[in-house]
Structures are given as C-alpha cells and as structure tokens.
Amino acid sequence: MKKSSIIIIIFFFLLGVLNIVFFYTGLTFGRYLTLPLMMPLLGLLYLRETQEKNLTRKMMVIAALAFSLGGDMLLLFWWNMLLFGLLSFLAAHIFYIFIFFTGKCKDMMTFPKIMGSLLVILYGEILYSVLYFSPGLIQEMRIPVLIYASTFTIGIIAAISRYSKVSMNSFWLLLLGAVLFLISDSIIAVNKFIQPYHWSFLFILSLYFTGQFFIILGLIKEKKI
Which of 45, 149, 141 is nearest to 93 (CA)? Predict the structure, then answer.
C-alpha cells in the first residue's frame, strides 16, 4: 500500500474519532467539518489502490460511497428526515449488492453459503419482528423499514456469495465490514424505534466508519480465484 494511502487511512480514522467526540461534546459545527470528508477519503483510497479494471464496477463503488455520504448529510442536518436518509443508504446498499454478488445463483448452493445466508435471514426476521411490534415504529414506517431490512440482509448474503470466488483475505475483510455496517444499522433502528440510549451513537458511528473502511479494503484486496 502506498505511503499516501496510509496517510489517508490515518486521517480517516482521526476524523472518525473527532466526529464522535464532537457529537458527545455538542460541538455540532465540528461534525459539519469532519463527517462530509470521510466517505470521499474512502473513495480516494479506493481509486488509488484498487486493481479493478472494470470501469463500471469502479463507478458503482464510488456511487455507493456517494449515497452513503448523502445519508450521512441527511441524518446530520435533518435527523427528523429519517426516511430520506434511509432512502439514500438504501441506494448505497443496492450498489454494494451488485458489487458483491459473484457468479451465478447455483454458486450459492454450497453448505457454508447456505448456512451463512440462513443465519442472516433469521437475524433480519427477528430484528424486524421486534421492530414491528414496537410502539415506536409508526404504521407509515413499517414498509420502508421492511424494505431497508430486506436490502441489508441481501447485502450480507451478497458478501457471503464471494466465498471461494475471491481471495480469503478479501472475503473476510469485506464480510466483516458488511456485518459491522449491519450492526450499526440495527442499533440505529433500536435507538430510534424501541429505546434510545445515550451512548448508542458511540457504537453506531464507530461501527459504521469501520464497516465502510473494511468493505473498501476488502474490495481493494480483491483477487478473483
């Protein structure tokens, strides 16, 4: 990895720490300065380090990061506009799904992939069931939340589909990133619709930043088998 890329990574995580500190100290202006830089830094890291030859796939990665940035901005400036933030992150997840999926549907018919997919589906069903019966989830949000939960479930399954298709280093890095992203989204849902916790955003933000980083790192190290 290039020396300049190491500097980008250090700067990325420094901004992440500052963003969390600014959140809990109430320095909103500091968050306005740090959060908008984080996804562009990951995009820059990806473009500098990737060996991907497919221009369309490259642009899809940048689009996923751009929609993630859009979701960040919507929730930063207008937390009450959760639906629009969800739509932006939904678009990011959809781009990631197309990026992650490798091979044909029949390639999913292996024991590790089937078991991993079933566990993810079970997790998604349990989470949505808990949210559905929560009084905090209003009627109008049930369908959007279901669509979003289904999409990130498919995203994890897409990440699992890379097993035996790419290098194991790339597979585990990206899967770890996708799972961290999923946990971050899950905590947001619990915090918003079930029970808010003061320290929840420490986990939401740290897991989200780290998850995005590992997804991009997994894509950078991707080598098809």
Answer: 149
